[in-house]
Design goal:
Distance between the termini: 25 Å
Order of helices and strands: EEEEEEHHEHEHHHHHEHEH
Strand content: 15-25%
Strand order of the largest sheet: 1-2-3-4-6-5-7-8-9-10
Protein name: Homoserine O-acetyltransferase
Organism: Methanobrevibacter millerae
Number of strands: 10
GO molecular function: acyltransferase activity, transferring groups other than amino-acyl groups
Largest sheet: 10 strands, mixed
Helix content: 25-40%
Shape: globular
InterPro entries: AB_hydrolase_fold (IPR029058), HAT_MetX-like (IPR008220)
Length: 339
Amino acid sequence: MNIIFFNGDIIITSNDFIHEYDKHVIERFEFENGEVLENVNVEYLIKGTPKYDQSGNICNMVVFFHGYDGNFYSLSDYSQFISKDGPFDTDDYLILSITSLGFPGSCCPSETGLKQNFPKYTFKDKVNFKRQFIKEKFGNCNMLGAVGIGMGGYEVYTWACEYPDDMKFIIIVNSSYKSAGYRYVMVKGINGVIENNPNFESGNYDESVTKTMISVYEILFSFYFSHKILQEMSNDEIDVYMDQFVEKSFNMDIYDFKYQNDALLDFNLEDKLKNIKANALIISSKEDLYFSAKYDSVPLKKYIENCQLEMVDFKRNKYDESDYTKVIDIYNSFLKDFK
């Protein structure tokens, strides 16, 4: 066993178990619109035990897709799932978490310095970005499954629709296959707030840009809690939680955020859902304000042949780790055929 240090993190590698954080450089990445960027970063975390098929290719990789304000490290929020004897037992699976295209840590408008001149990207671009990385890093890897939370589910749906032979299962929690209704209105409205800032097109940061991002996060807070919990809170409690949530805006670059929003506006896979071949586990919160079980999950039964739909009564906000203990039995039951 070798133990090394990377940016203060311990990395343990052996023939059997891997726990690694690193960055990979893709020499050339081409977007759907034909634009090309060179020497782009991919930030990733690997955890677990690789298994190999008869051709010597990894065959037990599960890719984790983080949400709207996450990155590769969001994997740690689900440690009760990804651990010895958890649903994703690290003896049985090799878990890969990648910071998505457009997010700091990987290739994005802020860290490339391109800002408003960054290529416009789609969710297929985000999938292709990760797909190219896996090919370069692992060769002919046979991906076993994909897990997506929130906006990460958008990527999982996209991958399963565009490349249906790449995976055997997908698990998606509180997500959707299109931007529509309330979500579309919110995304379009937030774009309007950003575009109305006179300094947005210039690429110059000043106090007005900071205030714009604060306003955006105040709007986003409206779907942070479940409907039931939000109604039960006093206004003073809401103020406290809102202030904590808005603090995240200080770390979000306005151009990174705007490009994410643009990708959301164009997202709609309704006509491609029948392409999905993977077994699907779809988990929805009964009380979620942003994703509706009725409109975002139930219709999937008619599109996806092997689809298991579970409605869960999440009591607290969607990012609280303790809520997900409710679905461990569901995961275990679903995954029993994929060990």
